[in-house]
Each structure stands twice: as C-alpha cells, then as structure tokens.
Amino acid sequence: MIRFDFKRAALALTVTALVAGCSSGVKLDDVPVDDKGATSTTGQGSNSGSGTGQSTVTPADMSQNSRPGQGPVGVAHVVYFDFDSYTVKPEYQSVLEGHARFLKANNGKKVNLEGNTDQRGGSEYNLALGQKRSEAVRRSLALLGVPDSQMEAVSFGKEKPAATGNSEDAYAQNRRVEFSYR
To answer: In the chain, what are the helix, strand and coil shares in percent, each to the nearest 5?
Structure first.
C-alpha cells in the first residue's frame, strides 16, 4: 500500500515556489560579445611595420599611473550604450584595449565596472540592464586577456546619474559603464 506523505509534498512545493520566486526573467548570461580577433591586439610593437591588421590604438602611458585609484592616462574611462542595449559598440574597442593593456601590465590593480542606465524604466529592470552592461564590458576585457580576478562587474541602475534632466542628451550620458580603479 502506498502512503501519501502530505508533509513532504507540502515541503517540496514550498521549496519549489521559493526557488521559482527568486529567479528573474532577465537573462544575464546572454550578453552579446563578439570576439573580433582579440589575439591581433597584443600590439606591444604595433609600429614595427610587420603587422597586418594591427590595432591603430595609441599606446597608453603606463609610467604616469602610480597614483592609487587611477587607471590608464589618456584613455577614456566611460563606455556609452544605446537605448535599452548592452552591446559594446565597436567604437569603444580602443578604450577596452587601453584598459586591458593597463590591467595586464599592473596585475595588482583592480577595476570596478560600474553599469548605469538612464532614468526610464523600473528599478529592477534598470539594475539588471546596468549589470548586463557591466558584464558585457567585463567579458570584452576578458577576451583581451584580463584575468577575472582583476575585474568586478557591478550595477547602479539609474541611481547614479551622470546628467540630470529629461532630454535625450542627458539620457545618453547616463547609459554607460564607468571604469573605477582601486
């Protein structure tokens, strides 16, 4: 005779409901990052004349980076995104390469990749979108050879705006990932 254990069934249903309730519909692992020949950007001798398809990025000056909390000099510390997007635009490849070179040359340095959004949308959605943006930049840096131990992806959502106002210009300034060195 099979006995139905009502307490066990109730406990299993409760645990299942808790796990399902904690999950989010936002897929943070689906960040689109294209590997566009990261191996060709090692570029230590990019002006040697022997390379084809080498990066045209101006080398960052690593000698002026001794101050704590400061990253590479002469390299932008912000990557901007389109509305409702977490795709890193190709125009920021040189920024990523500059930070990757700096981090690989200074393996004691760590960087927070702070994802931000504009003020439109709910708080939960903006936190998730900011996280997706910071993860996209982290993955791009990882493709360029930066160890995960030197990077942390965080999200501020819409809580840390760079610009106030309801104009498209203000929104565009807030859709970003900032590099914050420590």
So the answer is: 40, 15, 50
Is the separation of the CB atoms in 176 and 116 below 8 Å? yes
Spatial CB neighbours of 84, under 8 Å, sequence gap ≥ 6? 129
Quickly count: other Cβ atoms within 10 Å of residue 10's Cβ: 10
* Residue 78, both tokens: 């912000």
The amino acid at 140 = S
Summarize pLDDT for 54-76 with one digit per residue, the tens. Answer: 555 555 554 444 456 789 999 99
The answer to whether domain 69-181 has CATH 3.40.430.10 is no
| Three-state secondary structure call for residue 80 | strand
Whether the predicted pLDDT of 5 surpasses 90: no
